[in-house]
Amino acid sequence: MVDDTPPSARTGEASTSPVAAVELKGITKRFGEVVACDRVDLSVSRGEIHGLLGQNGAGKSTLMKVLLGLLTPDAGTILINGRPVVVKDPLAAAEMGIAMVHQHFSVIGALTVWENVTLGEPGRLDGKRAIRHVTEIAERYGLDVDPLTRLDELTPGQRQRVEIIKCLRRDPTILILDEPTSVLTLSESEELFGTLRKVVLDEGRAVVLISHKLDEILNATDKVTIMRDGRVVERAVTAETDAAGLARGMVGRDVVLRSSAAGLGLLEEAERTVEQRTSATPDLDATGTAAAPVILRVDQARHTTRDGRTLLDGLSLELARGEILGLAGVEGNGQAALEEMLTSLIALDTGTVEVDGVEIRTGRPGSMANAGVTVIPEDRHQAGCVLGMTVAENLVLDDVQRVCNRRIISPRLIRRQAEELIEQFGIKTPSPNTPMASLSGGNQQRVVLARAIRREPKVLVAAQPTHGLDVGAVEYMTEQLRAAAARGVAVLLISTELEEILSLADRIAVIHRGRILGVVDRADVDLERIGLMMGGHPA
Amino acid sequence: MEEPAGSETLLAKVAGTTTRTSRRNRLLANIALYVVAMALALAVSSVLIVAATEAAPFDVFHAMYEGSLSRPSAIGLTLDRAMPILIVAVGGIIATRAAMFNIGLEGQLMVGGLVGAVVALKLGLPAGAALPLTLVASAVGGALWAGIASLLRFWRGVDVVISTLLLNFVAIEVLSFALNKSWLLQETSSNTQKLPQSDRLEPAYQITRIGEQPGFSVSTGIFLAVILAGVVMFALARTRWGFRLKMLGMNPNAARAAGVSMAAVGGGALVMSGAFAGLAGGVVFAGTAFRIQPGYSANIGNDGLLCALIARRNVAATLPVAFFFGAMRAGGGFLAATGVPRYLVDVVQPLLVLAALLPPAVLFLWDRRQALRLARSEADSHDEPALIGAAA
Questions:
Q1: pLDDT tens digits along B143-156
Q2: Distance of alpha carbon A506 from alpha carbon A527, whole angstroms
Q3: Which candidate, A357, A346, A337, A345, places its Cα nearest to that of A458?
Q4: Could B250 and A397 be called an inter-chain contact, meaning their C-beta atoms sit closer than 8 Å?
Q5: DSSP per residue, B150-198
Q6: Is the pLDDT of residue A277 over 60?
């Protein structure tokens, strides 16, 4: 299954074409100390759909940005049709026949389909010819879309078709699709893969499909390259592999070793809080010991955005007193919506949220905070802090009354409370009256944490709490979360980093497409199964 | 590794620099900018004056000074003019703090004065009770007018800028309607040809004045205006309400998470700014105009809006700015009386206002350039493109 032969040797045996359409050799790209791509080799032939699989941060997108000329690699070469080239910017990439359909569309809503397709092309604009051309491409590939409609009237699936038409119009040799199905319905996804197959078979183009969905990789690709932590860990012919093998490659085995070591310190806690009523799988019922009371219960939560994307699709979960529930999953599977819902930013269409047995009205300002749910948000600048206010003010953001006499803020109280928290949480700031904006990211995060914990919440939601922090800050945050759980707070840890979840959580729930695919106890973690669930396989 | 910060972060970083030297440099830059801008405005005005009238520019500026600041009576007039502008501006700042851009202050002022006039002229109230009721009614009138925009915003999602602006035009029509209906506000003179204007307010119903012309004389309304500014300044800085308003204006998401309702607090701020504008209308009616006529609002609401914009979020700054606007009005009136054509006065005045607006604008652009540079240097160290948009 694992193909360890170097790509250069493999291209020789590929029957469709003697020379790879595109070949990346030893690509290395560093961001500061982080190595996003570490000597990555990738070779894609004409007539082939090549899957690029990996978790968030595995280096897939960085690699493609290098190929597109958006990033300059620190080392390595790019060969197009066997000739070494330097891709200095996206325009150069386009000339070499490299086209990419981005995950987040780069189309303009106020323009029509044909206008979007021709956008950015040099020379005089011939509307009629462009419309004819768009219609022609649409028909040839079965990408049904009217060139005269405005983009903002289209569904996400149709918008993507426009992106693909835009790419195909330039007659690319290599077509890259970044997580193309994340916005599509199932039938739309099938149509898309039909189109891709046609593009590859009839016209001999090469397609790179970036994905974290195992089914997609299995069904739609010819070959697959799996990346982890910036390295290629496996190359395989898709037909010779299976979901379990892909999941193993994506999640990695070395994780087990490291996290189980970290987990040792947790053993007591893990034993104390084993409680699973949301058992989606049989092996969970076995370990039910001293059942802590359920504090947070989300039942059949459903939320659809105005433009028709279903972010939460019947999500249910239960969180007990004193436990840390890790919510694992690939980014963009409803975690953000869950976090926003628990921050009272969005309301559920259907479904209920109960805190301590009391149903909470979702989406009503402050309803969650008042019920005892505090959130350390993923993007603290979004709802976590107010940059224009001082550190002292940010520390009382959701609880001003505490520093008020009647309705007048007491400068003495606000200062004293700030000094206490600054001391207790080791926030590095020149003074409590320093503007929040001039603190470093790690210290801003401490302010958010201090405020969340100071309120003595029943439920503490931490979304990517260590994202972008340095090692020391990560350790501090981790300790605080454990300490909170030890005090009896129910902690929901939302993270895309499996390692973080494995080292902290008592139970692990996996979210996929807005619903929980399964809940596993920390004690009987099976990485392969988690990987499968993250890839959308209910296990 | 730190994630690349957003544009607002960087802007706040640059503008919020706290070291003493940088603060002093900013102050010096500010002063220098004002000097340069004023000199420019005076130069351009001079050229225009010479070209149009062949009068000596110095005489013209001297006349403006004469009319606004030279004598006690002129200062009194300036304060009279500044009074409603200050009230409007203080209300305007309440709305700006909550990031509600109420640009319909003029219309709210118009409607407020109108409602006040109906109460004062038509209800036959005893002289003692009439004035407070007139002012309260004016505030309520302005609040209701702004309330329409607030309702549209939170019930139907209509943009506040658009609704408040368009309601200005509706207010003009409402005023005209009221002044043309004898059962509403049209004057009750015995003339056969009735003008579209209200009766004159009896002296007993007017806001008291201090001092006698030709000496220093000023409407006591100015005290009301200054006291209101003080109260609002305290409320914004020190109350729970002020805290929530600021939070809402700076980060609506954080405010929502903390339990601040956009509709209640934001909409409330919009209504309150309308109440202040309406009150200003009542003060104009009962303090200086004594009669409602078409166009009686004379752009006072718009000047108040400008004043609030120049003062940004700072109530204390409205005091000098409103005084400046009052001086412009008083001086401009005097200048017109000396024979300089009205159109020139209308050009010179806004030129000076522009000069007053220039320094904050330049400083803002300067900050943004610094922020961009900072963003680029951060982006370089990350090799990631950082997106910088215009700050809100």
A1: 999 999 999 999 98
A2: 15
A3: A357
A4: no
A5: HHIIIII---HHHHHHHHHHHHHHHHHHHHT-TTTTS---S-SS--SSP
A6: no
**How far apart (Å, rounded) are the C-alpha atoms in residues A91 and B151?**
49
Give the pLDDT confidence of A213-240 residue by residue, as tens digits. 788 888 889 999 999 888 999 999 999 9
Of B213 and A3, the one with more pLDDT: B213
Note the pLDDT of residue A276: 33
Q: What is the share, in percent, of chain A residues with pLDDT greater than 70?
A: 88
DSSP state of A101: E
Q: How far is CA A530 from CA A213, A330, A466, A522, A539, in A?
A: 13, 11, 21, 11, 8
Query: Is residue A497 a contact partner of residue A252, using CB atoms and an 8 Å limit?
Result: no
Average pLDDT over residues A434-443: 84
Distance from the A338 Cα atom to the nearest Cα atom in chain B, whole angstroms: 14
**What confidence tier does B379 reach under pLDDT thresholds 50, 70, 90?**
low
Q: Which residues in chain A have Cβ-Cβ distances shorter than 8 Å to B256?
A: 343-345, 365-366, 383
- CB-based contact A88:A161 (threshold 8 Å): no
Work out whether the CA dihedral B299, B301, B305, B308 comes out positive or negative: positive
For A373, which residue in chain B has the nearest alpha carbon? B257
Cβ distance of B3 and A468 shorter than 8 Å: yes
**Residue with token string 């980093």:** A497
Measure the CA–CA gap between A16 and A445, rounded to whole angstroms.
Answer: 53
pTM, 2 dp = 0.74
Encoding tokens for residue B379? 């982006």
Nearest alpha-carbon partner for B318 in B154, B90, B113? B90
**What pLDDT is recorded for position A297?**
95
Chain B residues inside the 8 Å CB shell of A444: none
Q: Is B313 exposed, middle or buried (0-12, 13-18, 19+ CB in 10 A)?
A: middle
Q: What is the DSSP letter of A208?
A: E
Spatial distance between the Cα atoms of B72 and A81, rounded to a whole number of angstroms: 88
Q: Are B53 and B340 in contact (CB under 8 A)?
A: yes
Name the amino acid, one letter, at A262: A
Within an 8 Å CB–CB cutoff, is residue A293 touching chain B? no
State the Cα–Cα distance between residues B163 and B104, nearest whole angstrom: 8
Pairing of strands A324-328, A490-494: parallel
> Exposure of B316 by Cβ count < 10 A (0-12 exposed, 13-18 middle, 19+ buried)?
exposed
Cβ–Cβ contact B1 with A under 8 A: yes
Q: Is the pLDDT of residue A285 over 60?
A: no
What number is the average pLDDT over the span B171-193? 89
Cα–Cα distance list, B63 to A156, B70, B327, B339 (Å): 66, 9, 12, 10
Choose among B239, B256, B384: nearest Cβ to A407. B239
State residue A458's pLDDT score.
Answer: 95
Cis bond before residue B350 (omega within 30° of 0): no
Chain B residues with CB under 8 Å of A437 CB are 9, 12-13, 16
The predicted complex's ipTM stands at 0.81
User: What distance, in Å, lies between the first and last C-alpha atoms of chain A?
Assistant: 22
For residues A500 and B172, give the distance between their C-alpha atoms in angstroms, rounded to a whole number.
64
Name B190's Cβ contacts closer than 8 Å, sequence gap at least 6.
none
Asked if A434 and B243 come within 8 Å (Cβ–Cβ), the reply is no
| Integer Cα distance of A228 and A250 in angstroms | 6
Collect all residues with Cβ–Cβ distance below 8 Å to B27 and sequence separation of at least 6.
Answer: none
Q: Which residue bears the tokens 């090469």?
A: A206
Please state, in angstroms and rounded to a whole number, the distance separating the CA atoms of residues A180 and B374. Answer: 34
Look up residue A343 and give its DSSP letter.
T
Predicted pLDDT of residue A260: 37
**pLDDT, mean of residues B205-221:** 90
Nearest C-alpha neighbor of B31 from the set B368, B352, B321, B358: B358
